């Protein structure tokens, strides 16, 4: 039995401010299951990816949306899913999410995922791009010199700026947040770029991981005045969790406070309370618990509630961080609605709040804060 | 509908063991609103300080106490509040808190806040002083020499000791808890004091931030045997959150374990579980979640519950950390009562506790632990 | 009134995968009370060990199991307990736990606790050994040379391997997790062993704390392919809490990923979310919140719930970490059942789960994961 508040939160049109594309084509069962964990390792012997919150949520919540009556087990689900045309599956789940604007990180998984024009054809929502800084550098490195890289980045960001909603940095993965918070000098950038180019010539992968270059990208992004998203907190096994605690960013946040760019801390779990503090004290800091919502499934209500403690309600956003299976695009929204409504309802029941208070906060987090930070889409 | 336990917790006379004075005079709306956030920055564009737990709690909980029927919006509240005489507003809210003893940190905001004698006239509770160590040093530095500073501090603390309930350190703000845990040598203190004095002569602010001097103050305080309060965990943007984790104090806590002084960790959020561990294993360690209660408002029940996990119930205290608006002196107590009663009720309902168990714990945390640590006021 | 799920979780036969022996003999009241805290310090003045979650749980939950009608206070309980024969008291509480297999860390408290054969006589459960690595080294050091220590350890572990269920390391206590993650060289081990032996000859205690030797033990343990348990998170005042955060193990976990040994992170509080992340991304990582369950008593439901967020349900285990009073062997299980059932019930009520989903997860965590990792007992 739903409360009035739950029904109203159910109806909200959301902005998903950090998401990736849905799968471009039909996928085999193994690939689908690999996309339901952050691990890139084989599963532990004798275990199934469905023995997890995300696995349970898919089996319990998605069949109804997809009209798959009677599907109750992972095997049933995998079988039934294979029979659905990709476009139909994707459209149904994206529509059911109630998201009417997607800000899509295009920096990863190009061949596996729908590109933005294709994604636009399977969703009623509008689609805007978030460009990934490291991916940009890794493209530019092949066409410029050590001396020219910095200007090439600045020029490229300036060109892209009118067409994107913001930038994304994965410095948490590539280095960690324990970096020198100051703007690197031009000569340091040239030296680092030279080192990087020589390594690539010697056969190294073009993956940028030099902290001087990663910092250069961050400052170049802030110079555009557009919002800058940073992956924070947990992710795949590449990452050193304790070095992705957003509290470590504090000196850098002070450095870029006057840049005009808002800093969007993504995911943050299990450091979402630290993120909430930063969002409380710094006007240019925002955050979400994106990735953690899908991955904690039925337990996500507590994570969502914890994200609504210290931060002003004007500084928290919704994202799904869905990547690949469109089940994730749907479930992120569904779980956010449920957890947010339950949390707000408890404050009505026990904390002296009115239903209007609650609904105002749901609207801020689900939509209005993102609109204020990212503006309207360019026509 | 209240439970018996809620009614009994409602009636408890509390000791607020860490608080600041209420506002001395009428304040304009901007100043009032600035005092409802820990940030010293302008608000993010398009946001209101009332879109926060504290803002919501004020609008939802204070009008009734103040007899402001029909006040439902921030604008209404600000307008109605301006018409109330300061002494009446303050007296009403302080009385409604049910606090009958206030331990007041006098080290900050002297011109803005009521002094202790004035505060005594607007509360039925008794008022005792907590003297701030850094403020003492910053006064003494103008009247002594580098060689004399250490003895001047010791002499001043000895003089004050009979008149104060304890000391307060803000080393978390001025340096962080990653300091050398040993007692500084006399010659190190003289060197550091000389450096500080020369800096002041050269025009620097007299703000003490040298870790040698901050440590000297801490050890001098512990030598008096009086309780020593340390700000821990979140605060304003000056602070590096991860360096204010009380777990970092462990070596220093071992150093001062035999001093006879109890160490009172204030606020601690989001490191209140770390504080609970320290309070569990070290007999001289106590803590509260003071500041976090007002700032998490309707969500404070979970923070309060988390503060009642590992620590013995004899080692947790109540404080509001209210500073300025007397709404904070009231709300801290009100929210503590609600969150504590709800938490304890859940242990009666689900955990095998009796109502007597619950009430005994509420009395320990709300009053008796503070009485045991700080003793009775001197007559 | 219990739900169906609560009744079914109540009936589960558990494997307690990390526990110590129960008290061997009658104990005086002081010793009993000392065993109800992780602190080795005297209690703070004016406080009682029963003013804690564990103390409350014992008084509220154990009299009924022991047939001590009318016992309601600590004094009553201590008096009544003294009259019960040790074997009967122990048998009653161990039986009431519903544990049918105990994996017992034998590395600490030999004279105080029952040895494994004796423990086997007072429990219907089977009893298997977890051998403590540091204790093994501290025995071997007296009978070998600096050059011979490494091989002596390897030989000893090889001899023991067929008879034990796994190994336990307390490197968290002896050094912290901020150790060099690589395998130490043979010559480094010889140098460190020589240093240790000379220190012992000079009268130092034979306690091994050199990080080179502690790492050697860890790698030797992983070379056996048996599960390796690591104390993580909170413990007694010896430990630096922030240095026992399992997130700090990430590089070492990568080093031993291919060893075939599973890494079992014990307790982890307040870093159980970090542990859950590691268990999510690394196939060889498992964890529990053992010690934290008894010590948070009526509040343990939230800790248990938080341990069931990010980690797959196949990677979380049950343990009591009981040491000494058999009340702890019972309460650990009792509190785990209650907290787990409540948590799972909330996901049925609010999260779309079926009762079958819930029961399957309870079985995984309470029993099946341990069976899969540790195998069946050798006959």
UniProtKB/TrEMBL annotation, chains A, B, C:
Record keyword Hydrolase present: yes
Protein name: Amidohydrolase
Molecular-function annotations in GO: hydrolase activity
Classification via SUPFAM superfamilies: Metallo-dependent hydrolases
Species of the source: Aeromicrobium phragmitis
Residues annotated as domain Amidohydrolase-related: 215-375
InterPro entries on file: Amidohydro-rel, Metal_Hydrolase
PANTHER family according to UniProt: AMIDOHYDROLASE 2 FAMILY PROTEIN (PTHR43383:SF2), NODULIN 6 (PTHR43383)
Residue ranges the record marks as coiled coil: none
Keywords noted in UniProt: Hydrolase
């Amino acid at each position: 039995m739903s409360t009035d508040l739950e029904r109203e939160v159910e109806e909200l049109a959301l902005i998903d401010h950090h998401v990736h594309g849905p799968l471009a084509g039909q996928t085999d069962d193994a690939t689908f299951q690999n996309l339901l964990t952050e691990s890139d390792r084989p599963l532990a012997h004798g275990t199934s990816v469905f023995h997890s919150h995300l696995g349970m949520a898919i089996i319990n919540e998605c069949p109804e949306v997809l009209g798959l009556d009677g599907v109750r087990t992972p095997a049933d689900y995998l079988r039934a899913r294979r029979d659905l045309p990709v476009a139909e599956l994707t459209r149904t789940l994206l529509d059911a999410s109630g998201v009417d604007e997607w800000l899509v990180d295009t920096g990863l998984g190009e061949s596996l995922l729908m590109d933005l024009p294709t994604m636009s054809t399977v969703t009623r929502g509008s689609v805007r791009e978030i460009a990934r800084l490291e991916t940009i550098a890794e493209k530019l490195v092949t066409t410029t010199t050590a001396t020219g890289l910095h200007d090439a980045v600045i020029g490229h960001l300036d060109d892209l700026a009118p067409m994107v909603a913001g930038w994304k940095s994965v410095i948490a993965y590539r280095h960690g947040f324990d970096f020198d918070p100051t703007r690197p000098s031009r000569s340091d950038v040239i030296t680092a770029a030279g080192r990087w180019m020589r390594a690539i010539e010697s056969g190294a992968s073009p993956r940028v991981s030099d902290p001087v270059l990663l910092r250069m990208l961050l400052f170049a992004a802030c110079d555009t005045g557009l919002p800058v998203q940073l992956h924070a907190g947990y992710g795949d096994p590449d990452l050193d969790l304790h070095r992705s605690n957003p509290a470590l960013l504090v000196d850098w946040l002070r450095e870029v406070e006057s840049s005009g760019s808002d800093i969007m801390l993504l995911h943050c779990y299990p450091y979402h309370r630290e993120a909430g503090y930063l969002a409380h004290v710094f006007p240019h800091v925002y955050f979400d618990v994106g990735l953690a919502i899908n991955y904690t499934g039925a337990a996500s209500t507590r994570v969502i509630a914890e994200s609504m403690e210290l931060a002003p309600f004007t500084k928290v956003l919704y994202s799904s961080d869905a990547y690949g299976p469109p089940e994730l695009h749907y479930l992120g929204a569904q779980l956010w609605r449920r957890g947010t409504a339950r949390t707000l309802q408890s404050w009505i029941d026990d904390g002296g709040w009115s239903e209007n208070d609650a609904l105002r906060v749901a609207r801020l987090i689900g939509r209005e804060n993102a609109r204020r930070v990212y503006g309207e889409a360019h026509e």
